Amino acid sequence: MINVLFVCLGNICRSPMGEAVLRNKIKNRGLESQILVDSAGTGDWHIGHQPHEGTRKLLDERGISYEGMVARQVTSQDFIEFDYVICMDQSNLTNLRKLIGGDEATIVSFMDLLPSETLREVPDPYYTGNFEEVYALMDAGCAVLLDKIVSEKL
Question: Which residues does UniProt mark as catalytic (predicted)?
Fold first, then answer.
């Protein structure tokens, strides 16, 4: 089983959207028994909460399930259990590096999956309100990520 973890600040907007979008792509390719996806936040403000209303609305409109998803905080154990840790921005990358005590773990910046994009961080729709922009990035980046996982691990 290949394990993928998306990480953002509060685990209610970007990382659960990435989790849901990648799960949907995995399901569409019949790979559910081979790839597990989760998400977490570097902060603890929203632990136990559903994804943000804007994320839920957007996913509902596209028929993408977020059933059972609740926010949790990232732990040091995640760096042992997950093959891919996908980080949404530089601030969270810095926080993750502090958590693991250095650069030992392999963490992928989400925007590195989309090198032709001018953005280098996934904007936080909690502040911008632009869930459509984030969805477009997640849709494109998760397609690249899934191809990467299949080619590297399956």
Answer: 8 (nucleophile), 14, 124 (proton donor)
Give the amino acid at 152.
Answer: E
Tens of pLDDT, residues 18-72: 999 999 999 999 999 999 999 999 999 999 999 999 999 999 999 999 999 999 9
Gap between the Cα atoms of 12 and 8, Å rounded: 8
The residue annotated as part of the active site, out of 8, 13, 87, 142, is 8
List the beta strands (DSSP E) in the chain: 2-8, 35-41, 84-87, 107-109
Which CATH number goes with the domain that contains 112? 3.40.50.2300
The two three-digit tokens of residue 100, written as one number: 């693991």
Domains in the chain: how many in total? 1
pTM beyond 0.85: yes
* Active-site option among 38, 78, 89, 124: 124
Residue 8 annotated among the catalytic residues of the structure? yes
62 included as an active-site residue: no
Residue type, position 62, single letter: R
Tally the C-alpha atoms within 13 A of residue 99's C-alpha that lie toward its C-beta. Answer: 20
Domain that holds residue 71: 2-153
Task: Point out the catalytic residue in the list 14, 23, 78, 142.
Answer: 14
72 counts as catalytic = no
